Amino acid sequence: FLVMSSPSLFISWVGLELNTLAFLPILLSKKNKLTSESSIKYFLTQTLASVIVIVGGLIMLILQMELSMMVILFGLAIKLGAAPFHSWLVTVAESLAWVPLFVLLTVQKLNPLFMIWSFSQINSNFFHLIVFSSLVVGSLMGLAQTSTRALITFSSISHVGWFLTGMAFSLETGLLYFLIYSVVLLAPVLLLESTNVSHINQLPLIQVKLQNQSILFFSLLSLGGLPPFLGFLPKWVI
């Protein structure tokens, strides 16, 4: 709410920092070495991105507006986990439980999206580069994954390209896409958590009713944006 309602870059930055500090305990909900390592990676990456955003704000005071907008967009792209600044997101996601992963891929993207819309140059060449590379990297790198967490993460990187495309048209379009994506992602995340599937080769071995298995595959098709499923609707809108 602080980020959403603030006309000031500094207050929005404070909101970003509060958000990072609030998310770290959720990251550490599973106690093992992997989550400790991923939480440190997450913290350092977010801190670096925040510093870049503040530097962008200072450049606005001293130098030209265009350069500062580009620096702010650079910092926020790192926070979003958009390609080509996505490698931290994949390593963090691999060691998370499913519910914190869902939060990381949805709620944690709201603040940077609002700030990109408010404080950076939408429809600049750098913005187009981020959108295009997110769509390409998310789609192609997903083909090489066997881990379901990595697959969902690369799918999310691809969807970030769509969020930003929506934002380029209007804030409402971007938020509509984000809202439907969050709903569509929730179903496979809860099903994968309940069946405890971490790798693709475990999918045929799910010892549950056939009905549940078909629900999982339908929800994955929806996440891929195939008609007539719900995931196709926001892509159609854009």
Automatic annotation (TrEMBL):
Domain of life of the organism encoding this protein = Eukaryota
- Name the Pfam families for this protein: Proton_antipo_M (PF00361)
Its UniProt entry gives the catalysed reaction(s) as:
a ubiquinone + NADH + 5 H(+)(in) = a ubiquinol + NAD(+) + 4 H(+)(out)
Question: Which InterPro entries does the record associate with it?
Answer: Complex_I_Subunit_2, NADH_UbQ_OxRdtase_chain2, ND/Mrp_TM
Q: Which ranges does the record mark as transmembrane? A: 6-28, 40-63, 69-89, 96-120, 126-144, 151-169, 175-193, 214-233
Indicate the segments forming the NADH:quinone oxidoreductase/Mrp antiporter transmembrane domain, all copies. 6-238
Q: Where does this protein chiefly localize?
A: mitochondrion
Q: How does it sit in the membrane?
A: Multi-pass membrane protein
Spell out the subcellular localization from the entry: Mitochondrion inner membrane
Q: Could you provide one GO biological process annotation from this protein's UniProt record?
A: mitochondrial electron transport, NADH to ubiquinone
GO cellular component labels: mitochondrial inner membrane
Q: Which GO terms describe its molecular function?
A: NADH dehydrogenase (ubiquinone) activity
Q: What does this protein do?
A: Core subunit of the mitochondrial membrane respiratory chain NADH dehydrogenase (Complex I) which catalyzes electron transfer from NADH through the respiratory chain, using ubiquinone as an electron acceptor. Essential for the catalytic activity and assembly of complex I.
Provide the protein name: NADH-ubiquinone oxidoreductase chain 2
Upper taxonomic classification of the species?
Eukaryota, Metazoa, Ecdysozoa, Arthropoda, Crustacea
